[in-house]
Amino acid sequence: MFMGEYQHNIDEKGRITIPAKFREELGENFVMTRGLDKCLFVYAMDEWKQLEAKLKSLPFTRSDARAFTRFFFSGATECELDKQGRVNIPGSLRQHAHLDKDCIILGVSNRVEIWSRELWETYFEESAESFNELAEKIVDFDL
């Protein structure tokens, strides 16, 4: 399970160091794709395969299902770490997430998220005000 928050920088070649605590669980190869809320999602291969199977089961006759799977899969790329624990983030994904230099890497249970520091701080501040309201809503999910 991924958890925690780490600050890292993207270098001039578009690479970012993945926190050591996440590397073992991600494995040698993993998948990075566009995420929601203008961040990137990173999945270990076994988790990606499970998600892929679920998305394949969506009815392709529904436009919202087609749009979501198109958004999700078209940005996906298989990645591997270099010997120093860095991964090269493709330019299209850096552009999607507005990643320039200062980044936040989050562990979010079954995935890792990569955020621009500025967008993460804005998102967190805005979301913090509604955490109590969100907690009341997710009670219905039997957590």
List keywords for this structure.
two-stranded antiparallel sheet; 6 helices; 143 residues; 6-stranded antiparallel beta sheet; alpha+beta
Structural class designation: alpha+beta
Radius of gyration: 16 Å
Helical residues, percent: 25-40%
Count the strands? 8
How does this model look, in words?
The protein is α+β, with helices and mostly antiparallel strands. Helix content is 40%, strand content 30%. The radius of gyration is 16 Å and the shape is globular.
Fold blueprint:
Layout: E1 2-9, E2 15-17, H1 20-26, E3 29-34, E4 40-44, H2 45-56, H3 63-74, E5 77-80, E6 86-88, H4 91-96, E7 102-109, E8 111-116, H5 117-128, H6 131-138
Antiparallel strand pairs: 1-7, 2-6, 3-4, 3-5, 4-8, 7-8
Quick recap of the structure?
This protein is an alpha+beta fold. It has 6 helices and 8 strands; from the N terminus they run ββαββααββαββαα.
